[in-house]
Amino acid sequence: MIIRRIVICSRPVSACLQNARTFSNHKIAPRIAVVGSGPAGMFTCTSLLRKSPAHIDVFEYSPVPYGLVRYGVAPDHQEVKNCINGFDKLFVNHSDRIKLFCNVKVGQDVAFDELVSNYDAIVLAYGSYRQRKLQTPGDKSTNVVSGSDFVAWYNGVPNSKAPLLDNSEAVIIGNGNVALDCARIISLGVLGKLNETDVPLERLKLLENAAINRIKIVGRRGPLDVSFTIKELREQFRVEGWQSYIEAAAREELEPEKWPAGIERKHQRLFELLRKHVLGSGPTDDKQCEFLFRRVSKEIKADENGRVKELIVENTRTKQREAFPCGLLIYCLGYESMVLDGVPKNDKVTCILRKRVNMSCFEGTIAMSDYWRVSMPSACSTRVYATGWCAHGPQGVIVQTQQQSAAVAETISTDLEQIQLQEQKPGVADLLKSRSVRYISWEKWKQIDEAEKERGKLQGKVREKFTAFDQFVSDKSPVN
Ligand SMILES: Cc1cc2nc3c(=O)[nH]c(=O)nc-3n(C[C@H](O)[C@H](O)[C@H](O)COP(=O)(O)OP(=O)(O)OC[C@H]3O[C@@H](n4cnc5c(N)ncnc54)[C@H](O)[C@@H]3O)c2cc1C
């Protein structure tokens, strides 16, 4: 490609000059593969398209893009999902430089090594979607579901198994925001308060007809150890028609003199909120959501049909066993990091060596040489980077992912500046076609997107999601 010297830019001149300098060093435009179209991948693309003349191919396992923004963030948080408008604009404003390949699983439809051979740089941004297991005897009982499966179900992920919602009691294990999301979606759903959101109609109906009127949110540690954020916690306390409260036994632990010294203001506010909602007199509403602490799961008991009927816990304050009846048990214990086949992985020995020189290292995670760069063999000329949940663990909100991704893009464009590329790398579009991989392009996604919004409008909803995409990928030739 010819050197791009002219940069049309509406930002201050100094920023344009900086970009112009960056662009001018490249004789050949680098070709970059981004694995994953969640916030990490898309925010990296946003910065890369500004900072370098790179051509980018984004590969996404799902038939539709944007990761947990579409399939994780709760349906009553539509304002958070608005970031997809910015992602969509990238494909409009830079249609000559960025291409989307949905329905393509790296590691299955195309190998990581094939990306290495066909790109100058690779950004791993494939998130971390595998839920940690409960590992309590009886956890295979019917209607014991992971938070990630429950979230996927109400968010319309294709082929999600519907939970049974016909029992009045539900227990949610976990003290993080995913537990709160699950509780809130049940609480709002049974009251018919999600009708305007993007929960698919048939799933909305199941929620609306649910018999659940008691939810217990159970944590193994104390009330000062919760990982809730104040916004999500407040939302649960504010669901009208539900009485949400903290068990009376937590009152003493929540007294300010018990708070750790020097805690941040945000924690003080969180503890205040918990304290304010400790149950005073007895429960009043018929729909109740109770927060219980210091309960360790010991056993799940099933009925004669193999369906969960009780969670047995040990109360670590009293050392007594307690039984919580439930027809639905959701466990929200966080997500596990995963490493794609072919990507260098930290093994036990590496971790021991790294820790000796005070470097952090977790076995089974992507082997990084620093915060952004993946530790590739020295003979490999392709640069590999990782960002977002797959790189730094499954925690943090979208804004944090955005900050990381801006920084990784800066690193990539600086690194690529140092190399004189010898040839234009081909990418793998032809390879996918030769394998008849039915990928969904951005143009096809836009058709899906428009159709979903149109279907939604007819129902007075933000969108009516498709929960099957066969009709969009059934052509003989790849959809592009
Ligand atoms: C239930 C839940 C609710 C949340 N709610 C909020 C909220 O309200 N506000 C907020 O700010 N943050 C929220 N978050 C956090 C937020 O979703 C994450 O910070 C963010 O999505 C992480 O971005 P990511 O790109 O690393 O991962 P992801 O969003 O998971 O994106 C990774 C993408 O990679 C794709 N992928 C995986 N494997 C492959 C492969 N082999 N080949 C190709 N593609 C692949 C996945 O399909 C996915 O689309 C929530 C998280 C969860 C789990």
From TrEMBL:
One of its GO terms (molecular function) is oxidoreductase activity. InterPro entries: FAD/NAD-bd_sf (IPR036188), FAD/NAD-binding_dom (IPR023753), Ferredox_Rdtase (IPR055275), Ferredox_Rdtase_adrenod (IPR021163). GO terms for biological process: cholesterol metabolic process. Pfam families: Pyr_redox_2. It comes from the Eukaryota. It is found in: Mitochondrion. Keywords: FAD, Flavoprotein, Mitochondrion, NADP, Oxidoreductase. One of its GO terms (cellular component) is mitochondrion. The keyword Flavoprotein applies. It is an enzyme of class 1 (oxidoreductase). This is NADPH:adrenodoxin oxidoreductase, mitochondrial. It comes from Diploscapter pachys.
